[in-house]
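Sample 1 of the test manifest.
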Amino acid sequence: MEKKEKILEGAMKEFLVQGYAGTSMDRVAKAAAVSKTTVYSHFGDKEGLFVALVERLAKKKYSEVFSQGNHSLLQGEPEVVLRQFATKMVDLACEDTEDLTFIRLIVGESGRFPKLAETFVSNLVKPGIEVLSQYLASRPELEIEDREATARVILGSLVYFKIVQVMLYGEKIVPMEGDRLINSLLHLLLR
Amino acid sequence: MEKKEKILEGAMKEFLVQGYAGTSMDRVAKAAAVSKTTVYSHFGDKEGLFVALVERLAKKKYSEVFSQGNHSLLQGEPEVVLRQFATKMVDLACEDTEDLTFIRLIVGESGRFPKLAETFVSNLVKPGIEVLSQYLASRPELEIEDREATARVILGSLVYFKIVQVMLYGEKIVPMEGDRLINSLLHLLLR
DNA sequence: GTAGTAAAACTAAACTGTTTAGTTTTATTT
DNA sequence: AAATAAAACTAAACAGTTTAGTTTTACTAC
């Protein structure tokens, strides 16, 4: 394997769990099974490594979520398509998965790394809103005037649910089945 | 002013901006204009100070948002009340305000401090869901079956909007007026 | 009341031992 | 010759403690 890849994988393990300030370059080198000199020769400094990692992750997540295979899913009856889409968002990434930890990192470091937050929005949030908007536009029977705003209502409901239930450990405090949220959301959209 | 208060105020300035790992006890003491020994005599160690700060902030935010004055706002015609509620959430806390920075901190540190995330959910998220659920229940003409799930749709739409637009600097990349979101949300709820 | 006193809270600074980002040096591999 | 490794290194910052001395507070004796 290329050293650069090995370093990024080691960096991922550390940064995702410990955050930027909590991660040391020594531990990154150890996690990557690479010498510290090699890390510095490839990425210059800590910030350079962090930026490279987050940008690579954003692109990777983009291609995971917005591949052709997934695009074709957004065709067909709203009742079916929207339920499928929502179920995928609520069920997938249910454990303490990489995706949720990535969002945690971006939000947590957004104050100190605004550029990375913008990368995240450009690569993941914006395409998400656009794909959903386009689907809503292709279904005039839904009688949705403002597709983009409605797409944000849908995404917001689902993302907020995941954040509260999983990321902030809300399942014990405010328990709720994902299906209840999905049913209520679809009820609003389809009535 | 009490020393304890001064320390918490200094700690707030540092922790909210720099995060847990990024904040040093020396800088907290300096920001509070207090000696380091005093900090340690009051809060034991760094973690103790951090926990005390977050819990105090959670309680403070709670009383700000769920005071009697605000409760009474949730009475009257849905068209008016819901628009007022949504507008308040979208407009208030518009700059890089303490509230948004607090959420950033909670989300960012939720992996390393699960207890604090639970405090946040218990003190702010849960009451928010409950108050909104109760209002929806008081308005049967809205024909909402699952009030709690619908309350989450409303809160999710608004919180996600603020997170994307302000916290993650989305205003430049995916611009949108708050009114558009509110109109679409109300359109779904009232039709 | 006022002077004296003792406990408690406080300060500033030095200190310990660890960890940090980043560099350099020397040696090994390819 | 170029990339790597391992290890030693620097200078600074870190959490937390200790020290030596000051201020505040409250209580006592007169």
